[in-house]
Amino acid sequence: MSTTDTTTVAAYAAPAAKAPLERVTIPRRALGERDILIEIKYCGICHSDIHQVKEEWGEAPFPMVPGHEIAGLVAAVGAGVTRHQVGDRVGVGCFVDSCGTCENCVEGLEQFCLNGATGTYPIGPDGEPTYGGYSTHIVVTEDFALKIPEGISLEAAAPLLCAGITLYSPLKRWGAGPGKKVAIVGLGGLGHMGVKIAAAMGAEVTVLSQSLRKKDDGLKLGATHYHATGDPETFEKLAGTFDLIVSTVSANMDFDAYLGLLKTRGTMVNVGAPSEPTPINLFSIIGGDKTLAGSMVGGIPETQEMLDFCAEHGLGAEIEVISADRINEAYDRVLASDVRYRFVIDTATI
Prior knowledge:
Layout (H helix, E strand, L loop, with lengths): L6 E7 L8 E7 L6 E10 L2 H7 L16 E8 L11 E4 L2 E3 L5 H4 L11 E2 L17 E5 L4 E2 L6 H4 L5 H11 L7 E5 L5 H10 L3 E6 L5 H7 L3 E4 L4 H5 L4 E6 L7 H5 L2 E9 L12 H4 L4 E4 L5 H13 L6 E4 L4 H9 L6 E5 L4
Parallel strand pairs: 10-11, 10-13, 11-12, 13-14, 14-15, 16-17
Antiparallel strand pairs: 1-2, 3-4, 3-8, 3-17, 4-5, 5-9, 6-7
């Protein structure tokens, strides 16, 4: 593709809300002075891609090219680029720009840019659509491309750009480590990375899942214990057990029951995003001086830290690599919880 003019590249897009994705061509901007062109090699399928395509998080622009778990190689660089060179292994996560000057950006919390971070998709601050990683190439500002260490394959690294940092950030912030008992609620695309990362941090990890169907997997991934939340006795047996609970569940749940599993002054962090409001009895927090918190992805510095941590500990996502013509099938399987544990698109098949 040309690097001097706006051009078109192949991609997979949803033409309308709830419509199957299909092969299209999309525009990519010309390289600016501090831009890099990335030849995308792999892109993970995140559950949030499905939420967006189905317009479950509000009105969205179409056609929509999802994808914010991007791993690839630098194919070209702008004249002023200093952070990356052609051939570098790089990744792009959930956002591709921010103002760079507000309080949050200065602190490395670009995801909370007070002037609005630009998501990898579906729309930019100017109201124009942005297109994600279900594509052969993407152009981003150099500061928003992460270095993928050699210790992780590109395909296993792709989901780390969302699933990995989404779990790393709260586990680090709320002190997962030696002597701490951590529960991960849900063993899916997010949860399996939570188990791996919490165990690598030195915590005693428990998986709380609806059934024991994935127990063997959970223990292999690093959990010490595995309990079924579908069994009411679980909540009696584990009452007051955990220092930290991280819930990856995107459906409404009984928060009062889960808060009862925390120790005094324990914390429950929610990274799942239910589409409907969730009721809670505040006495579940007040009794025991507990905290119910939320967490999103990390900023650029923390995401790089996460990638380096995963490389150091030999961590990558558990993946099933698929061709692009199987994206719609993969969406159906994600909704049926029929993936262990992340679909990754081989973009050479687009």
